[in-house]
Amino acid sequence: MIQQWCVENKEHGIDRIPTPRIPISSSDVSELLTKITNSSKLEMQDSRLCEELVTRVKNLASESDRNKCCFVTNGIGKVLSSAFLELSKGKNAKNASTEEVILSTLTLFLPLDVKSKTILGSISLLRCIAWFLKNGSLSSRRNAVLVLREIMKLEEKEKVEILLNIEGALEGLVKLVKEPICPNTTKASLLTIYHMVINSSSQSSRSRFVDVGLVELLIEILVDCDKSICEKALGVLDGILSYEEGVKRAYNYALSVPVLVKKLLRVSDLATEFSVSILWKICKNENNGDCGVLVEALQVGAFQKLLLMLQVGCSEITKEKASELLKLLNVHRDRAECVDSLDFKSLKRTF
């Protein structure tokens, strides 16, 4: 009866009624994961079989959330991470294809547990992931940065320094920001860089963030981006400007002050707090006789916006920085007039 109905309605685009897929059982998942572990072991390594098994996991997990939860419950993150580690030890060019499939499959199970992230943070795997970040296809570069973001969330200084010392790793992340693949990849790259910036301890590592042109790139991104990317870019910029080299680069870049003042009160509370912090770092280090940065900030309306921000309300730390900025700006108010003063006419008064 159903078959006859389908045939009669084929001209309307109906070929068949899809049969519901049977969810995978926990025992089947456990057996599959054991096979992956065995096929990846160095002494009996079979990368082709391992790739087939991981591909099956990927297909099953993509079928339903129930299947995905079943894999997570049975420790899929640890199994895939361990298999990835074993394959990276094999030093076999044929393993690259399997490693790429594992990397892709891992992204289906984000966020990863701490044990999985710890395994992925080993030196050999960080080098392997960095290789995909630099040399892989667009999808591989995307998967690599998504996994790197998870590893950097551990906020371990040792892993940050290892990654920074891998040739081309930082440049690969910057390239994903400069030449974005998709918004999610850009956000993951910015978050990865952010964790690296705030957890970097050596002077040479700090200088690298500046040397790769991150300060100028982030300010250019801020000119036209969505809320989420704006907040992350400002967070990274605020971190870099904790270093003297970063402050100097921002101070000497023509777009810095106009763009940062533009973001005050226009994006979100978080973006405003980051913008105030960055402006404070630039302006408090003003050492030019003509106080050019302060005058420029006045010309683009920083005084009125900061005053309005204090009236609206903000966090205590931001309030302190905004108050200090207003004191610095107030000294030079007779030298410049805000180009948008009509918008804040009623707020113009001595601070």
UniProtKB/TrEMBL annotation:
<keyword id="KW-0808">Transferase</keyword>
<keyword id="KW-0833">Ubl conjugation pathway</keyword>
<protein>
    <recommendedName>
        <fullName>U-box domain-containing protein</fullName>
        <ecNumber>2.3.2.27</ecNumber>
    </recommendedName>
</protein>
<comment type="function">
    <text>Functions as an E3 ubiquitin ligase.</text>
</comment>
<dbReference type="GO" id="GO:0061630">
    <property type="term" value="F:ubiquitin protein ligase activity"/>
</dbReference>
<comment type="pathway">
    <text>Protein modification; protein ubiquitination.</text>
</comment>
<feature type="domain" description="U-box">
    <location>
        <begin position="38"/>
        <end position="346"/>
    </location>
</feature>
<dbReference type="InterPro" id="IPR011989">
    <property type="entry name" value="ARM-like"/>
</dbReference>
<dbReference type="GO" id="GO:0016567">
    <property type="term" value="P:protein ubiquitination"/>
</dbReference>
<dbReference type="InterPro" id="IPR058678">
    <property type="entry name" value="ARM_PUB"/>
</dbReference>
<dbReference type="InterPro" id="IPR045185">
    <property type="entry name" value="PUB22/23/24-like"/>
</dbReference>
<dbReference type="InterPro" id="IPR016024">
    <property type="entry name" value="ARM-type_fold"/>
</dbReference>
<dbReference type="Pfam" id="PF25598">
    <property type="entry name" value="ARM_PUB"/>
</dbReference>
